[in-house]
Amino acid sequence: MSTDITVPQLPESVSDATVASWTKKKGDSVQRDEVLVELETDKVVLEVPAPADGVLEEILHDEGDTVTADTVLGRVSEGAGGGGDQGADTGAQAAEPQRETAPAEAEPAATEARMGPAARKLVDENNLDPSIIPGSGKDGRITKEDVLNYLESGGKEAAPAAKTEEAPARESTSSAQEAPAESKSKPAPAPSETAAKAGVSHSPGERPEKRVPMTRLRARIAERLLQAKQETAMLTTFNEVNMQPIMELRARYKDRFEKTHGVKLGFMSFFVTAAAEALKRFPDINASIDGNDLVYHGYTDIGIAVSSERGLVVPILRDAETLSMAEIESRIRDFGARAQEGRIGIDEMTGGTFTITNGGVFGSLVSTPIVNPPQSAILGMHKIQERPVADNGEVVIRPMMYLALSYDHRIVDGKDSVQFLVVIKELLEDPARLILDL
Predict the structure, then answer these.
(1) Fold (topology level) of 2-113
(2) Residue 421 has pLDDT above 90, yes or no
(3) In the 8-state DSSP scheme, what is residue 141?
(4) What is d(CA 111, CA 133) in angstroms, rounded to the nearest whole number?
């Protein structure tokens, strides 16, 4: 008896998907609920599990094919292989040597199943053995970053990356857990290293090129960014904030905060809380355009831009104005971890009334972020850098950060955009006001 493997119902506003990868080959044994296919949509990766125990009898759509909901991807022949190990348990003792070697033989397939599409592509291009690459993702899942680290180490097996504050900061724009000024910047890779990461290697004097199709997510990002540039009257205003008060407060209470709430105190919770308060005072910046109407939202759903191995995603902190700083930190850390594994649901990225992005974790000193339609504004955080500033008539050194607010001038006036940034600056430079709601 054969059972169809079908495309699940796709999220609202997603019409089709691309087959990103198969974790099994035709003829392989599969177990019920084991991930067989990864489908890439405009925003997330969907995992399709095996419908039953058995053998993968047929693959009807290969990697790169475009499919829609309820499309039959392949078929599983039930009962042909899924229960093989149980049968071996009841066999004669002569089968014992085979049972001992079975796990070792199955290990590469299990390893393949816990790799994302980007990681698998790098492994195949560099002819690597995935079973010896340490995985830092959930349940030991191998990420693209793990493969790159393995290549940079010269193919030597290394311990998985420690899940410290610095690791998420390197992986996602939301993880502003450590001040960029407090750690040394990672040197830019040499041209040869960059070429190796891109899968292009060559001898001196050669000029190779490599053409790869754009991922669905990257194509969607390009489409939306171009749309934003063409359909909004976008301007950017700047200010700067002295981060010393927040850094001192964080240094004083971070250990007690983590002990009490079970999550580390970063900088992003201060910015989210300040932004939520400022959005209450400037409702135009929390509004959106719908046709000829202006929609004013009585809540603040703040999107946090997160960089993953597949591209930029923006999960939403719903009702951010009601969240404590501990709740904000916990949800952002969860978003950052799941973004690396493509586990953020489409519903978690739908909506949003305002966005915060942090290029500072990558070393950006100043930038002009692009508005995420139909929102009317986006706040850009940047690198914390010690600079000489005037304080009460004296020149002193302070850890400073440039802030950028890009906004749609069709909704937001220049005066409001400037005053909005001033409010955020004042709240961050006197963080007691955030706690006291002043």
Answers:
(1) OB fold (Dihydrolipoamide Acetyltransferase, E2P) (2.40.50)
(2) yes
(3) P
(4) 9
- In the chain, CATH 2.40.50.100 sits at 2-113
Q: What is the spatial distance between Cα 156 and Cα 169, in angstroms, rounded to a whole number? A: 24
Residue 416 annotated among the catalytic residues of the structure: no
Of 70, 129, 319, 413, the active-site residue reads: 413
Long-range interactions of 338-342: CB distance < 8 A, separation 24+: 339/172, 339/306, 339/307, 339/308, 339/313, 339/315, 340/137, 340/143, 340/145, 340/171, 340/172, 340/308, 340/309, 341/116, 341/137, 341/138, 341/141, 341/143, 342/38, 342/44, 342/45, 342/116, 342/308, 342/310
Residue-wise pLDDT for 123-142, tens only, equals: 777 778 887 888 776 567 77
Closest CA to 17 of 145, 112, 117, 138: 117
A 10 A CB-CB count for 13 gives: 10
Does residue 202 carry a catalytic annotation? no
Q: What own/partner pairs with CB < 8 Å and gap ≥ 24 does 316-320 have?
A: 316/348, 316/349, 316/350, 316/351, 316/352, 317/272, 320/272, 320/273, 320/275, 320/276
Per-residue pLDDT band at 184 (split at 50, 70, 90): very low
Considering Cα of 431, then 432, then 434, then 438, what sign does the dihedral take? negative
Structure tokens at 322: 């009601």
Catalytic residue among 124, 255, 409, 430: 409
Helix axes 414-429, 244-261, angle to 10 degrees: 70
Q: What is the spatial distance between Cα 351 and Cα 370, in angstroms, rounded to a whole number?
A: 17
φ and ψ of 377, to 5 deg? -160, 160
Helix (H) or strand (E) holding 386: strand 385-391
Helical spans, DSSP H, in 182-267 = 191-197, 216-231, 244-261
Backbone angles phi, psi at 337, to 5 degrees: -70, -45
Cβ-contact 176, 250 below 8 angstroms: no
Maximum C-alpha span of the chain = 90
User: Which part of the chain has CATH 3.30.559.10?
Assistant: 217-436
- Asked if CATH classification 3.30.559.10 holds for the domain at 217-436, the reply, yes or no, is yes
The CA distance from 59 to 240, in Å, is: 56
In this prediction, residue 131 carries a pLDDT of 79
**Token pair for residue 85?**
């190990």
The structure tokens listed for 406 are 């890009």
Is 151 exposed, middle or buried, given 0-12, 13-18 or 19+ CB atoms closer than 10 A? middle
| pTM of full prediction above 0.70 | no
